[in-house]
Specification:
heterodimer; A: 424 residues; D-Maltodextrin-Binding Protein, domain 2; five-stranded mixed β-sheet; 45% helix; 15% strand; B: mainly alpha; two-stranded antiparallel ribbon
């Protein structure tokens, strides 16, 4: 009796497996997996985005897998080692470049040339992840810096229009500076390192560059980076000294303790998504948005860095065409809702993106202009290391422990050997 | 008398019962340790197969890498201060909790609770406590008329801050001390009292000597643990400001999982293992001079 039941169970199972194997390719959709680095509300939003794709496409079914962004590298390396890679994945920031160098990603140039119009994308789109003549990752959602300033504070101290260049930012900041009776800072105009990407991005509008692609040398001691660090060291001295500022900034947290929202910081070189935070935590704050103030006269290489997350197709996928089909949708239509809700921009210029009406009217155009001008981050496979060593050495410089030139030269010494190894 | 067979059936049954642990130990520890030794002589990025480079990693570690002395100094500094401080605090708390007062079990539980709080949560909590302007610690120092430092934002005070924070997790050692204290035979105290000893004398002449095995245990485990300090620095300071809280294991972690240089990270791990081993052995040898075991009398 039991054996008979077992027998029929096995037969049925076989039938199912065969049907699945034969019918799905013929009539069903091809299933591909997508590794998504976001969790929480962002994961929910990603699920909605994917649902839209699945409903609109009758050939491909995307299955979303949450892989926490902070663990993405480790998980992906293990997956690549075992050959069990996702078909598509998003990697935060620039780190995905090292995957390309390690030969883990599918080159995308032939698909881009076949299916996309390059002129429809902002200039940095196919530049950031160029490696040996091909493209390996594509930005998925972008932002670059603009000035966000507190109008209430400006009014209080008698300032009108937003500052136009960095010298004006300094002059404004000195006017906004306020200390209590004990001499402790209570309000400051501007904090140079309060910027996405830290010192590297701060020095970009000076025209600094951290890597020379011809000589393959790290150039943290680029004359313009030195100029930027000197400016910052001087600025810290003028507004009360590094220790005083660090004491002031160390207390800051996110959300309700945010210094800008509480009026303790009046100007921010910020990405646009920050406006959703203001709306959430300080909806009554009166603020304006203005183009990024740069040091001195404008020039093509004097602008901030393009902030982004990036999408890619790992080598070893069994469905490269389907993966590309999905990727193509993600970087065009698929960014629209994602970017709208977060108040960021899309790399695809024809995108219909609507930030909420809580955002100042002028903001969208200013940010769109900023991402079009934005420069790419150094194309190196050790960006994380560069970032950390720059932060540590710049920190010593602003405290006066080392002079700016020594600090930046030290970055070269620390990063170059690692970079040489990574290229091999 | 029959000669005992080398391996009896009873032995086998014993090993079988222990086998889940033995197998786990073999796979997850023994294999991993051997692999680390092998990889430490290789250039290994996970993706490409390990490439034998002899002692290249060790040459880099001892000769070229300028951060190694710094991270080693940071770790040593942390250990030298955090371990004794933690022991004193734990011992002090254990002594307090060794009194028979009403609700003592509650007090014991309360002082142990911080050790149960996940390290990440307590790190976030301490970020607040260390805030220079309105953090709890500097407010308290303010009452004493002291202008508190910038703590985590200060090159000089970031390590002391993490050392102070480490006392938050003394609950484990505290319990061990408490158990030790309760094992001190009552009659020794009674005899001393009859001879007219005061509390101070009893503490130094009875409690401390009887506690030395416990103190030794807590010291060794404490040193081993603090050489591997990681979580707080990883979450609160990421090694900064400057390099002031870049501890050895944090540096190792960065090499392994940020730069994907597993071979070099393995070499770092092996050197750390040897350092801890040597220090533990030194402690073990000196212990014969100062640790008192009743059973060995």
């Amino acid at each position: 009796m039991v054996q008979k039941r077992l027998g029929s169970l096995i037969v049925w199972l076989l039938v199912f497996v065969l049907l699945e194997g034969v019918l799905t390719p013929a009539f069903g959709k091809t299933k591909i997996t997508y590794w998504c680095p976001w969790g929480g509300i962002w994961l929910d939003l990603q699920k909605e985005v994917i649902k839209t794709f699945n409903e609109s496409n009758d050939k491909i079914e995307v299955e979303i897998v949450e892989v926490p962004g902070s663990l993405m590298d480790q998980k992906f390396m293990t997956a690549a080692l075992s050959g069990n890679v996702p078909d598509v994945m998003v990697r935060w920031g620039f780190g995905g470049f090292s995957f390309a160098v390690k030969g883990l990603l599918l080159p995308l140039k032939k698909y881009i040339d076949r299916d996309l119009k390059r002129e429809e994308f902002i200039p940095a789109t196919f530049e950031q992840f160029k490696y040996r003549g091909d493209v390996y990752l594509i930005p998925y959602g972008v932002s670059a810096n603009a000035l966000i300033y507190n109008k209430e504070v400006f009014k209080k101290v008698g300032l009108g229009r937003p500052p136009k260049d960095l010298d004006e930012v300094k002059a404004y900041s000195l006017k906004i500076l306020e200390k209590d009776s004990a001499g402790k800072l209570t309000r400051i105009g501007y904090l140079p390192l309060d910027i996405w990407g830290g010192f590297i991005n701060f020095s970009y509008p000076f025209g600094a560059s951290f890597y020379n692609e011809v000589t393959k040398k790290v150039t943290a001691d680029h004359p313009k980076a030195i100029e930027a660090l000197k400016w910052m060291v001087d600025y810290y001295k003028e507004v009360g000294g590094a220790e005083a500022i660090l004491a002031f900034t160390q207390g800051f947290g996110a959300a309700t303790q945010d210094p800008f929202m509480s009026g303790q910081l009046a100007m921010k070189f910020s990405h646009s998504w920050y406006m959703t935070q203001i709306y959430k935590f300080a909806p009554k704050l009166e603020y304006g948005v203005a183009p990024l103030p740069i040091p001195g006269k404008p020039a093509p290489n004097k602008w901030a860095m393009l902030g982004l997350d990036a999408i890619c197709i790992p080598k070893g996928t069994k469905h490269p065409e389907e993966a590309w089909e999905f990727t193509k949708w993600m970087i065009t239509k698929g960014t629209e809702k994602w970017a709208s809700i977060q108040a960021i921009n899309s790399q695809w210029i024809p995108s219909k993106i609507e930030w909420g009406d809580y955002v100042p009217k002028e903001a969208f155009e200013i940010y769109l202009d900023s991402i079009k001008k934005a420069r790419i981050a150094p194309r190196i496979p050790v960006y994380g290391l560069l970032d950390q060593r720059v932060a540590a050495n710049v920190d010593l410089a602003i405290r006066g422990k080392v002079d700016p030139v020594t600090a930046l030269k030290k970055v070269n010494e620390e990063v170059q050997p690692e970079l040489d190894k990574a290229w091999k | 008398m029959a000669k005992k067979r080398f391996f009896t059936k009873k032995d086998l049954i014993g090993y079988l019962f222990a086998s889940p642990w033995l197998i786990g130990f073999a796979i997850f520890n023994v294999y991993a340790i051997i692999a680390v030794i092998y990889y430490s002589f290789c250039d290994y990025s996970i993706i490409e197969p390990p490439k034998w480079i002899g002692i290249g990693n060790y040459i880099e570690l001892f000769r070229k890498d300028e951060l190694v002395p710094i991270v080693f100094y940071n770790t040593l500094y942390y250990t030298v201060f955090a371990v004794p401080l933690g022991m004193i605090v734990a011992f002090f708390l254990a002594s307090l909790l060794n009194h028979e007062v009403r609700g003592i079990s509650w007090f014991r539980a309360i002082f142990y609770v911080p050790s149960v709080v996940p390290a990440v949560a307590s790190s976030i909590l301490w970020l607040w406590i260390f805030r220079p302007r309105d953090g709890l610690l500097n407010i308290l120092l303010g009452f004493l008329g002291i202008n508190g430092p910038n703590w985590l934002a200060s090159l000089e005070w970031s390590k002391p801050a993490l050392i102070i924070m480490s006392t938050w997790g003394v609950g484990g050692s505290m319990l061990i001390f408490l158990a030790g204290l309760q094992d001190v035979p009552r009659q020794l105290y009674e005899a001393a009292e009859i001879d007219g000893a005061n509390g101070w004398v009893k503490f130094w002449k009875i409690t401390i000597p009887m506690m030395t095995p416990t103190i030794f245990f807590v010291l060794v485990t404490g040193v081993i643990g603090s050489f591997q300090v990681f979580t707080a620095a990883y979450i609160m300071t990421q090694g900064g400001p400057g390099n002031s809280t870049m501890f050895y294991v944090l540096y190792l972690f960065n090499k392994a999982f940020r730069d994907f240089r597993m071979g070099y990270a393995s070499a770092l791990a092996l050197i750390l293992f040897l350092v801890i081993l040597i220090i533990s052995l030194i402690l073990l040898f000196t212990s014969e001079k100062w640790v008192y075991y009743e059973a060995r009398r």
